[in-house]
Amino acid sequence: MATDLGSRRELVHAGKTGLLYRVGDVDQLVSAIEFLSAQPDLAERMGQAGRAQVRQRYTAEGHYEALMGLYERLASGTKQSSGDGRWGSKQDTRPTPSAARTAVDRVESNAFVPVKHFAFERALRDRGSIKHKESQKPMLRVAFIGGRGVVSKYSGIETYYEEIGKRLTGMGHEVTAYCRTYFTPPGEWHNGIRVVRLPTIRSKHLETLVHTFLSTLHVLVQPCDVVHYHALGPALFSFIPRLAGKRTVVTVQGLDWQGKKWGRIAAAVLRLGERAAVSLPTGTMVVSRTLQQHYGEHYGAGTSYVPNGGLLRERSLPDKILDWGLEPGKYILFLGRFSPEKGCHLLVEAYEQLDTNVKLVMAGALSYCDDYARQLRTHASECIKMLDWVSGEALDELLTNAMLFVLPSDLEGLSLALLDAMGAGLCVLGSDVPENREAIDDSGFTFRRGDVADLADRLRFLIANPAVREAAGEAAKRRIREHYQWQNIAAEIERAYFEMMGWEQTAVPAKKPSGRVEAPAEKRRAG
Asked: Residue 193 carries which DSSP code?
């Protein structure tokens, strides 16, 4: 229900997507409330119709496409040709030079969303409308290799692809993501990122290596300044583009060889990748101070600390979770791969020791540890919900309506699921591995790694103390806001790229993260 002012009449169609009432007419508002209270089914249908209308006509993607069309018309100096009466009708006149200049200024200052291509800027440059100053940032051409791709999500690397990629394009750079054909749907662009889909062998031990090799061969003949490899396995190939005069960088997300799913030979190869990550590329980034300290102590190598980021979320109204039999604030949540190093079995065992009406939700993707995942799913019940990978609006709902987030992992780099839970304002409980303690700091709780009894004890305490959970959730969200924002992280990555290229950074004010390694402080334990 809304007052019948201006554009609201375009959105709210009486009896179809909602009800309108006259401004200041309390009696009409009361009548509308009574009418809908007596017809909840109609209210629900109108709500669904309103949502459908927004998805069809008012999406962020549609807004972006309209803006890009406007920019290109400004660049070419042509008028709109459509005659539907909206922006773009024939009566629209050519923008004035000052208006065009304003649009250019806003694009140059990165005020708009990531762009699919750079035709606007190039066309204006060709027409002499943009006069690049010596202090203006140069444009980088970057390729991401090592992850499964975009659109879908499986691990932190895929999230990194999307969150950093779309922000770098928004900062004026060209980003290409090398994706696996089975993982990423067909399409040339996604969120401003150019998508290159290449095949691979669906095998636990060969999939990443084969795809990385093919991607590396492909990028050799592409116009590219920086090739950015992700994880230890792909790091083995990071010397090859350097032979063609390209800069390469490796981001280490964790010491993968420690994972229980790997056999002796695979673990040995990943150990080689650990060394290769600092010996073969032009530069190396690590996502935690713990990893930075590891490389300093074991290899005497300097690395750049550039952490992962988290999204700040506000609480979403429950919808999908109700279909799963969940109530807001009445479930414990785990998000991640169902694999041994994530400690999923520990959480299930600890939960089964509790006497509570709070449910446990395990949501995540299957890994190559099929036997482990199948065994885990045998615990599914009315109280223990086993969900597939969740994304989009469903993920927002699941995260923001949880009572508590638990990460019982034995091995981490810097968990994106943990950062997202903190960004959603959840109280978090993690195993006391150094990387978790580093991320949580004093804004959450830890338990002894691998200790089921200790985990169960922490769960009992937090379930019984809502005020403690609320205070911890507020502190967690504040920590993400202050230390783990994707836009700031993208700026640090851009700065690192410029340093590797030997380019001036007059337009990049961000300071280089300190190379000093600080010992993580003792983290608080519940109870």
From this structure: E
Give the C-alpha separation, 369 to 359, whole Å.
Answer: 25
Angle at 41 between CA 36 and CA 43, to 5 degrees: 40
Quote the CA–CA distance of 137 and 153 in Å, as a whole number. 32
Q: What is the DSSP string of 21-87?
A: E-TT-HHHHHHHHHHHHH-HHHHHHHHHHHHHHHHHHS-HHHHHHHHHHHHHHHHHTPPP---SSST
* pTM for this model (two decimals): 0.68
Tell me the pairing of strands 193-198 and 174-180. parallel
Question: What's the CA gap between 132 and 130, in Å, rounded?
Answer: 6
User: Residue 420 in contact with residue 443, Cβ under 8 Å?
Assistant: no
Estimate to the nearest angstrom the gap between the alpha carbon of 46 and the chain centroid: 32
**430 and 406 Cβ atoms separated by less than 8 Å:** yes
User: Within a 10 A sphere around the Cβ of 488, how many other Cβ atoms?
Assistant: 15
3-state SS assignment for residue 177: strand
Work out the angle between the directed axes of helices 26-38 and 40-57 (0-180°, nearest 10).
100
> Are the CB atoms for 191 and 490 separated by under 8 Å?
no
Measure the CA–CA gap between 294 and 315, rounded to whole angstroms: 38
Let me know: does 461 contact 527? Beta carbons within 8 Å. Answer: yes
Q: Please give the chain's pLDDT, 527 residues, in tens.
A: 898 776 777 788 877 888 888 888 887 888 889 888 888 888 888 888 888 788 777 877 667 767 876 776 677 665 444 444 333 433 443 344 444 344 444 444 444 444 444 444 444 444 444 444 444 678 899 999 988 878 755 567 888 888 999 999 999 999 999 999 887 778 888 888 999 999 988 877 788 889 999 999 999 999 999 999 998 889 999 999 999 999 999 999 877 656 666 667 877 888 888 889 989 999 999 998 988 988 898 888 889 899 999 999 999 889 999 999 999 999 999 998 888 888 999 999 999 999 999 999 999 866 555 788 888 889 999 999 999 888 888 999 999 999 999 999 988 878 899 999 999 999 999 999 999 999 999 999 999 999 999 999 999 999 999 999 999 999 999 999 999 999 999 999 999 999 988 886 544 444 444 443 333 344 444 44
Are the C-beta atoms of residues 281 and 249 closer than 8 Å to each other?
A: yes
Residue ranges of E strands in 136-218: 141-145, 174-180, 189-190, 193-198
Q: Is 237 exposed, middle or buried (0-12, 13-18, 19+ CB in 10 A)?
A: buried
